[in-house]
Amino acid sequence: MIRKFFCPVFVLGLLASAALLQTSAAQQGNASAILSQITKAFSSGKPIRQVQLAGSAEWHAGSLHDSGSVVLTASSAGAATMQLSLAKKGSWTESQSAIGATMSCQWAGNDGTIHQGDAMNCLRPVVWFLPQISLQPASIPTGIGFVDLSIGTVGPGTYRHLQSQAVLAQMPSELLARSVEASTTDIGIDPNTLLPSILRYQVHPDNGAQVNIPIEVRFSDYQRVDGAEVPFMIQRYVNGSLQLEIHISSVQIN
Q1: Tens digit of pLDDT for each residue in 195-230?
Q2: Range of the domain at 207
């Protein structure tokens, strides 16, 4: 059951067809002002290249409840890794390569065997547990676009609504439209703090079955560490149920 929840990025909402095929530069232009404001709120405009978060984790899967420690590593290029060490399940790792046409993602359980995630689940335009590191204008890769949808409803609340997609021109034409759809991600920005409060997208099982699984990540308890605002509470919901709750206790910023 855990396997099909890996690599949390997929489609939640679509822009109109014409907007989907705009260049990334045009899409970023629609959101350039708010992206700059988010980066100023995140790090006072100082470039952040890599962040490592560590803390405790609570895992829920049906009736199973497990707990342990977690280490999260994210880079501004989009590479990200989560390493869990749970009392019952043992080790669990999820990883994502840097953003680009050859993006890949993997997961491994307690036996250490590495499993490749479904390709469409790997098209992650932002780091799922720290989206603001992916919203720094100077670090946004070619092919990642953002649209500012102004104030609106994202999940259970009202936020400044950003939508992000991957428009990777290097991809074969037969995969391009599907990749744009698969990568669409909705980001809810707190209009007062200008920090991410919620992230929404969908995934499907690693076997490629077209069963969309809604994912929602919530961020709270922001604290300033070494000049950057970091959420010390991260909650990941799968199909409406809390799957993972992370409490951060230490932060390293480069």
Answers
A1: 999 999 988 887 766 788 999 999 999 999 999 999
A2: 3-253
- Who contacts 17 (Cβ-Cβ below 8 Å, separation ≥6)? none
Dist CA 51 CA 179 (whole Å): 27
CA distances from 81 to 57, 61, 74, 92, 207 (A): 15, 21, 7, 11, 22
- Report the C-alpha gap between 130 and 81 in whole angstroms: 11
75: domain CATH number?
A: 2.50.20.10
Total number of domains constituting the chain: 1
Phi then psi for residue 24, to 5 deg, are -65, -35
Whether the pLDDT of residue 117 is over 70: the answer is yes
Kind of pairing, strands 196-203 and 213-225? Answer: antiparallel
CA torsion 57-61-64-70 (nearest 10°) is -20
**What's the CA gap between 93 and 82, in Å, rounded?**
6
What Cα–Cα distance (Å) separates residue 165 from each residue in 1, 99, 102, 209, 210?
28, 11, 16, 22, 19
